[in-house]
Amino acid sequence: MVPIPLQKQEKWTPPESNIIKLNFDASFSSSSHTSVSGVIARNSRGEIMAACTYPHMRVADAFMAEAMACEQAVTFAIELGFRSVQVEGDSLSVIKKLVSAAPDKSILSPIIRDISSKKGFFESLTFSFVGRCGNGAAHALCREGLHHNNPRYWMEEAPKVVVQAAAKDLGS
């Protein structure tokens, strides 16, 4: 993976053809030290290919929650058999750590190493940053995941509120 300059996108943009874009986000509760990861996979036409929510326990802080959500996005892509993937999220610190050539020495380093160790599963794996406005569908998934104690998965669909957020991401 060649690091690319991080440019803030203000809206969601479809990936190139033959690439699946997975957007991730996390919600974090400091009182219970839990988080929920939300991941949505879309193709070059903006169609929802899959979505998931995943609860996590014993989460130290919001930065860790975001890193865990990114890790979940990469794992989800592997499980679905996607080979050319762009992972996008609104956590600039996590994205910077993933595109940096320097080894990470933060509390996130085990998660960053795990994500990096999975690059061999892909023909192409890139990471990019998008502003909060361009990550609405993943954010809506996190909110949906707060209502469930177990992981939830959708294939070629998503909860209605997420479908609406995805359309809004596209500007529809």
UniProtKB/TrEMBL annotation:
Organism placement in taxonomy: Eukaryota, Viridiplantae, Streptophyta, Embryophyta, Tracheophyta
PANTHER family: BNAC02G40300D PROTEIN, RNASE H TYPE-1 DOMAIN-CONTAINING PROTEIN
UniProt protein name: RNase H type-1 domain-containing protein
Matches recorded under Pfam families: RVT_3
Domain RNase H type-1: 23-144
Domain of life: Eukaryota
